[in-house]
């Protein structure tokens, strides 16, 4: 990786911490001050900055080689318009040649046909 990474919905750092441990600078953005505080306590000495804010209001034009939103980050946004605004802003935050990665997680459940979850 040639440049800094932005993780949207960073939470407590499940992705950001191991990435920062490789020496890559990571900015992690989360809406929750409580999550950000937990991550800050884990990130001492690592190239990891923790930001609190709304990922639909991202204003970081041309700063990152990679923007990622994994797990449930995008599904936390209430509307399709919010999701689109987030993705558009993430695209603007990319350096030329940079990349966007999103891998939402979906809950695993099985149903017995009655709609009841097991």
Description:
The protein has 118 residues and is of the alpha/beta class. Strand 2 (26-30), helix 2 and strand 3 form a beta-alpha-beta unit. The chain is globular, with a radius of gyration of 16 Å. The mean pLDDT is 87. It is built from three helices and five strands. 28% of the residues are buried.
Question: Would you spell out the secondary-structure blueprint of this structure?
Answer:
Elements: E1 5-8, H1 16-21, E2 26-30, H2 33-42, E3 48-52, E4 64-71, H3 80-92, E5 94-104
Parallel strand pairs: 1-2, 1-4, 2-3, 4-5
Considering DSSP H and I runs of 4 or more, what fraction of the residues is helical?
Answer: 10-25%
Order of helices and strands: EHEHEEHE
Helical segment tally? 3
- As laid out across the biggest beta sheet, the strand order is 3-2-1-4-5
| Largest beta-sheet characterization | 5 strands, parallel
Q: Output the structural class.
A: alpha/beta
DSSP strand (E) fraction? Answer: 25-35%
Low-confidence stretches: none
Counting DSSP E segments of at least 2 residues, the number of strands comes to 5
The radius of gyration is: 16 Å
Mean pLDDT score, rounded? Answer: 87
Shape, principal axes of CA atoms: globular
**What is the straight-line distance between the termini?**
42 Å
